[in-house]
Predict the structure.
Amino acid sequence: MKTIEITIPVEVYTPDDPMLSESDRSLIEEAKIAARDSYAPYSKFHVGAALRLEGDIVVRGSNQENAVYPVGCCAERTALYYAGATYPDKAVNTIAIAVWREADGLFLAQPASPCGVCRQHLVETEQRFKQPIRVILYGTECIYVINSAAALLPLTFTGEEL
Ligand code: THU
């Protein structure tokens, strides 16, 4: 027996970090706008996602809940499904995610991570377009950047064995 350890590189920025590009900053703003459009009467946890597609096209999505809870959809997949349906030939370069919580009326101080289902969809989108998706997780105190969605889902089920 041996043990392998899987670690992932996460870049950590402060919101005013000059190393954060204007393009990434504007995508974060789009994610914040998307959170405003979320439908989250049950969790009151308003998630916004913004995708930058090939050709600098920006697409937004937000969580859309339902009284039958599992019927709801996360912000990340709302954005990915919209992009897939509207721009099927455009690769996804970057996703930014921001969360606004009704309880305190603030964006989260620490970044929130995409759920497992959304990670699975992000990884397949990477494989579909054969290029990594940069993942930007926004918090008011710090911002994480992960250079590939695959890093967020080690030992992914890829479907190759199907
Ligand atoms: N949610 C997202 O939109 N993205 C995630 O990655 C995690 C959770 C939504 C689903 C639900 O509407 C609310 O946040 C609480 O789980």
Q: What stands out?
A: The two ends are 28 Å apart (CA to CA). Residues 40, 43, 45, 47, 63, 65, 72, 74-76, 114-115, 118 surround tetrahydrodeoxyuridine (CB under 6 Å). The helical segments are 22-36, 75-86, 116-129.
